[in-house]
């Protein structure tokens, strides 16, 4: 029994079959595939939901076939049990969900199941009848009350409690909770298995649990088995079930016995049924037959298991011996390998190193037992983290993969640096699941050193080729100039084609006209004097055959018979294969040597003039001779202020005397490096002229060898002071533009935020957040103008940077900027002007105060003040800051003006212009909001509708102005009587509505009577005469007693107001529905009446 692998050949297959594997044995791979397909909690959850829905349908349509699994059984699944199966199925499906609402419903389902089953167990324990069993569908078996026949069985209730607790723990990944979840699920499954075996084997005690009057139904047992399997399937390879999914011997044994656990009871039940049905045996005989067969099957099963275990153990021992032999040979190969090798695990432990590793690194295994300690010794502590990241990538390789890690420089125990090329191979996990890695090393120290030498040699060759190319170009230019000036002819001879190319001057040297065709080689040979012909020919042939250059003097015969001396030179040109393919050379008439020497002298003079007219200083000296004066051009006087004749000391020493001390060491190091490598150099450094002025110099030069092999340095030094200053100025300008660009971006953002502000306070907070970014070293305060009669005060609304010279409020006349209408900068170090009176404290030296008026549309709105305590070198108050601050002040003023304008328009749109009370539109909007809040919180809302009695008399007798005066006085009195949370609105004409959130009908009625008495006590004078006393009539309604909608409540209060008018005025009438009795307080001066609602129902 165990893992049944696919045989590699026919014989292997026969051996496997002879091993006696049972057809019911599950191999590890088959078991894992079965687990993936069957153990999904969603499948079990949907099965449980389906079972519950089928049973509920059976109860709904009175179909016993759907409420029981075994036909004819009296035990049916109850309604509460089916409902709990549906809830448990959804909880099982959502147990591992990461969706928030599914997690919440998972908890709700578990809570409902636990509540139902706990109450059911409480009924069993106490004998109470809570009516819980008849909530959904009344059980036809127990038609009266909640009797035991219609109640969920105690066995089912306990199983549901166990599964609820198991599913609660199943969401956790901690091992103790996983074990707890599996234990509870196993207990529930065991209870279900008892019931199933009881039904299959006919043992009533297995499905009658604590209470003998209630039995668990057969379909309920099946449902619990499904839920238990689903709960166990969350963590099949952890906790108590780890051994079941393990490929070990215990896992194979458990998977061998697992199918028999389900097959054996079915076989026994079928055998018992067949014996009683067809053999007519008595139950006692059938039970004995079942016991005998059970014992035989168990013995056979034990024998099969024992034989399978024995075979598996023999195979295991054989495999273990083979593995040990392979391990021994592998260790022997590794230890004797000429290349260093190391074996280590993914936890960082080094298991083994071979002799080559010890010899090359110098470290024993005891010196570096872990990978991290090895890295620290050979790479240094600063590189450990970087190399460990590479090691983590090696640990992640799949088994069998090989990876090149690259070359690393390590330090051996002796201190020597070696370059190792690492290759790592993943060997797979060990017994504990840790990855094993074998790394092989190739010591490439010598190769790396050779590579570096080759790179250096290549760079030197490239440099030499560049120098040589430059020299050739210079020689070519000089040759062309010399030919032009000295009339020197040049020629070229193609060896393959035997053709000659002559320059025009060469024609003249041989007494020919340049227009004549170029002579052939044989014709040219005849032009050579007969006595010199062999000599010339030998040199030419040697140059062709051996590539040896030549320089000879020979005679030539012109066509007129005259003889001339010519000095000829020639050299060979080779192709890529090294073969001579061309000869090039020149010739000069020695007869005119003197004239030629004169021309050469003139050419030298021209070259000297060219150097002296160069704006830079040309120099040349020998670096190995410190006292060598070398050569320096006359421009040295312009550059350093030192005459060329005074350049008496060694060139190098004298030049260093003028180098800036801060740059001297750096330049010396760079020059010595270039000198050591004999390469060209280019430096930029400072020099100090003889008059003390500091200048910038660009020094470029190269290394040359003289004819005698002396190393020479030749260079050009140019004054780049103006270029440097221009670059610095450009950099400062770029920084300034970046700063302006940042300020413009911040200004744009500030303007966007100001436009989005809804109140002046929000605008102040925006200013406090942006100004420290625009003026980092400044602090200040924003104040707004407040008018109280004729007094104009500036009140601070926001500060930033903790200013010390500001006041929370000051008069408009205390600021020079506000009085003059322009920004005002007070700086005691620069401007002799007075400080503003509102500035607190003494302004010390280095500080400044900058005041800006906030004005828009010709009106002063506020004041913006900046202050700083730093010096003028880094202060925010510079030439660019005041204009920026003025721009901010203009934007802020416009924003504040817009906000104030919007607030004014809003107030005018919501308030009555005569009384200052809110208008009817605001009442409707506010009433709807308060109703919605009151409906959510369950609060009351009182509504008062009042009207001035005989108001028309005031208009008729005293005029409409008097009526307006009365309305204003009444409005002021009402505002003094109500709470701050109450809303007083002019509803229309002399009719006023008062909305009282949180006030009940009784409180509203008392407040209405207080208002009535307060109005009656008003004394109003108009044009030096006292107007008659006022009385008002008030109608009172409240939410929810008088209605649930705003229109209904206002109508109820208005109806009560008309009834108060009809009752004689100067009284309060309360709208009261007939279904609620209102008890009035007794008071001597109370005038509260009750208006019952004849309909008898609330509005």
TrEMBL record:
Keyword Mitochondrion: no
Claim: RNA-binding is one of the keywords in the record: no
Any Gene Ontology CC annotation: plasma membrane
GO biological process: cell adhesion involved in single-species biofilm formation; negative regulation of bacterial-type flagellum-dependent cell motility
Sorted UniProt keywords: Cell inner membrane, Cell membrane, Membrane, Nucleotide-binding, Repeat, Transferase, Transmembrane, Transmembrane helix
Compartments, as annotated in UniProt: Cell inner membrane
Pfam family, one: PAS_8
Recorded GO MF terms: diguanylate cyclase activity; nucleotide binding
Domain PAC: residue ranges: 550-602, 681-732
Transmembrane segments: 40-59, 79-96, 108-126, 184-210, 216-236, 257-276, 288-306
Domain PAS stretches: 326-398, 603-678
Domain GGDEF: 939-1073
UniProt xrefs under InterPro entries: Diguanylate_Cyclase, GAF, GAF-like_dom_sf, GGDEF_dom, Nucleotide_cyclase, PAC, PAS, PAS-assoc_C
CDD domains membership: GGDEF, PAS
Superkingdom of this protein's organism: Bacteria
Protein topology in the membrane: Multi-pass membrane protein
Name of the protein this chain belongs to: Diguanylate cyclase (GGDEF domain) with PAS/PAC and GAF sensors
Organism: Synechococcus elongatus (strain ATCC 33912 / PCC 7942 / FACHB-805) (Anacystis nidulans R2)
């Amino acid at each position: 029994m165990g893992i049944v692998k696919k045989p590699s050949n026919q014989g292997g297959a026969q051996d496997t079959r002879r091993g006696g594997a049972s057809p019911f044995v599950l191999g590890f791979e088959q078991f894992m595939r079965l687990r993936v397909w069957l153990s999904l909690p969603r499948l079990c959850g949907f099965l449980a939901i389906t079972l519950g829905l089928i049973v509920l349908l059976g109860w709904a349509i009175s179909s016993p076939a759907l409420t029981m699994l075994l036909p004819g059984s009296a035990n049916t699944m109850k309604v509460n049990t089916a409902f709990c199966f549906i809830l448990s199925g959804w909880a099982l499906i959502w147990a591992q969900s990461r969706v928030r609402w599914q997690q919440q419903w998972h908890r709700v389902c578990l809570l409902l199941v636990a509540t139902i089953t706990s109450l059911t167990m409480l009924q069993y324990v106490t004998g109470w009848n809570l009516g819980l069993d008849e909530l959904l569908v009344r059980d036809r078996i127990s038609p009266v009350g909640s009797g035991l026949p219609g109640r969920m069985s105690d066995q089912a209730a306990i199983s549901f409690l166990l599964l609820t607790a198991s599913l609660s723990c199943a969401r956790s990944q901690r091992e103790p909770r996983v074990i707890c979840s599996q234990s509870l699920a196993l207990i529930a499954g065991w209870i279900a298995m008892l019931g199933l075996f009881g039904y299959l084997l006919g043992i009533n005690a297995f499905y009658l649990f604590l209470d003998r009057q209630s039995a668990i139904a057969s379909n309920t047992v099946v449902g619990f088995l499904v839920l238990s399997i689903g709960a166990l399937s969350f963590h099949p390879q952890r906790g108590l079930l780890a051994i079941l999914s393990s490929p070990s011997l215990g896992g194979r044994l458990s998977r061998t016995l697992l199918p028999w656990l389900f097959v054996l009871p079915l076989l026994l039940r079928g055998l018992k049924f067949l014996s009683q049905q067809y053999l007519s045996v008595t139950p006692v005989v059938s039970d004995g037959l079942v016991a005998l067969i059970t014992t035989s099957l168990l013995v056979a099963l034990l024998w099969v298991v024992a034989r399978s275990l024995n075979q598996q153990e023999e195979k295991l021992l054989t495999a273990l011996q083979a593995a040990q032999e392979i391990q021994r040979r592998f260790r022997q190969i590794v230890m004797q390998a000429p290349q260093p090798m190391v074996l280590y695990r993914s936890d960082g432990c080094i298991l083994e190193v071979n002799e080559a590793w010890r010899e090359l690194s110098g470290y024993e295994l005891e010196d570096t037992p872990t990978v991290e300690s090895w890295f620290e010794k050979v790479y240094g502590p600063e590189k450990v983290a970087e190399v460990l990241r590479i090691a983590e990538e090696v640990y992640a390789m799949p088994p069998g993969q090989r990876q090149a890690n690259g070359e690393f420089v390590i330090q051996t125990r002796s201190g020597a640096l070696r370059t190792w090329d690492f290759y790592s191979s993943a060997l797979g996990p060990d017994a504990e699941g840790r990855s094993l890695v074998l790394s092989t090393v190739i010591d490439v120290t010598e190769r790396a050193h050779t590579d570096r030498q080759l790179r250096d040699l290549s760079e030197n060759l490239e440099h030499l080729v560049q120098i040589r190319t430059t020299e050739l170009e210079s020689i070519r230019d000089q040759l062309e100039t010399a030919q032009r000036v000295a009339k020197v002819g040049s020629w070229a001879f193609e060896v393959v084609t035997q053709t000659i190319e002559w320059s025009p001057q060469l024609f003249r040297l041989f007494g020919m006209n340049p227009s004549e065709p170029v002579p052939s080689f044989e014709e040219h040979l005849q032009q050579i004097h007969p006595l010199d012909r062999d000599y010339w020919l030998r040199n030419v042939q040697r140059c062709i055959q051996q590539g040896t250059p030549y320089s000879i003097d020979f005679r030539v015969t012109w066509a007129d018979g005259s003889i001339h001396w010519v000095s000829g030179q020639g050299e060979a040109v080779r192709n890529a294969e090294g073969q001579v393919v061309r000869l090039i050379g020149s010739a000069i008439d020695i007869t005119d040597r003197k004239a030629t020497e004169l021309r050469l002298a003139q050419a030298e003079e021209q070259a000297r003039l060219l150097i002296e007219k160069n704006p830079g200083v040309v120099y040349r000296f020998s670096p190995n001779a410190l006292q060598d004066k070398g050569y320096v051009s006359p421009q040295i006087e312009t550059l350093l202020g030192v005459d060329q004749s005074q350049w008496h000391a060694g060139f190098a020493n004298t030049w260093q005397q003028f180098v800036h001390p801060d740059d001297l060491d750096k330049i010396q190091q760079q020059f010595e490096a270039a000198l050591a490598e004999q390469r060209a150099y280019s430096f930029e450094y400072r020099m100090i002229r003889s008059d003390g002025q500091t200048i910038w110099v660009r020094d470029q030069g190269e290394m040359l060898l003289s004819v005698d092999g002396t190393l020479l340095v030749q260079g050009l030094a140019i004054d780049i002071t103006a270029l440097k200053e221009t670059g610095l100025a450009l950099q400062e300008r770029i920084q300034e533009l970046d700063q302006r660009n940042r300020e413009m971006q911040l200004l744009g953002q500030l303007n966007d935020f100001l436009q989005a502000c809804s109140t002046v306070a929000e605008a102040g907070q925006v200013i406090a957040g942006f100004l420290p970014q625009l003026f980092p070293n400044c602090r200040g305060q924003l104040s707004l103008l407040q008018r109280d009669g004729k007094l104009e005060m500036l009140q601070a609304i926001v500060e930033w940077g903790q200013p010390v010279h500001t006041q929370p409020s000051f008069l408009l006349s205390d600021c020079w900027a506000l009085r003059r209408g322009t920004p005002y900068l007070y700086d005691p170090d620069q401007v002799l002007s007075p400080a503003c009176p509102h500035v607190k404290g003494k302004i010390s030296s280095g500080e400044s105060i900058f005041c800006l008026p906030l004005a828009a549309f010709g009106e002063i709105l506020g004041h913006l003040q900046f202050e700083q305590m730093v010096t003028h070198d880094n202060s925010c108050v510079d030439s660019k800051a005041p204009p920026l601050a003025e721009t901010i002040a203009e934007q802020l003023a416009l924003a504040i003006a817009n906000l104030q304008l919007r607030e004014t328009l809003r107030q005018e749109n919501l308030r009555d212009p005569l009384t200052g009370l809110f208008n009817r539109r605001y009442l409707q909007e506010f009433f709807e909001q308060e109703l919605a809040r009151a409906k959510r919180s369950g609060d009351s809302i009182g509504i008062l509708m009042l009207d001035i009695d005989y108001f028309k008399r005031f208009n008729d007798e005293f005029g409409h102005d008097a009526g307006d005066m009365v309305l204003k006085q009444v409005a002021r009195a009402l505002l003094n009587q109500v709470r701050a949370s109450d809303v007083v609105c002019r509803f229309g004409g002399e009719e006023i509505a008062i909305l009282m959130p949180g006030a009940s009908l009784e409180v509203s009625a008392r407040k209405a009577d207080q208002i009535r008495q307060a109005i009656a006590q008003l004394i109003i004078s108009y044009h030096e005469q006292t107007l008659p006393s006022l009385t008002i009539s008030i109608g009172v309604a409240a939410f929810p007693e008088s209605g649930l909608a705003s229109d209904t409540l206002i109508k109820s209060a208005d109806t009560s107001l008309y009834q108060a008018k009809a009752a004689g005025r100067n009284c309060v009438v309360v709208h009261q529905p007939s279904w609620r009795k209102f008890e009035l307080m007794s008071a001597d001066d109370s005038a509260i009446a009750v208006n019952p609602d004849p309909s008898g129902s609330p509005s």
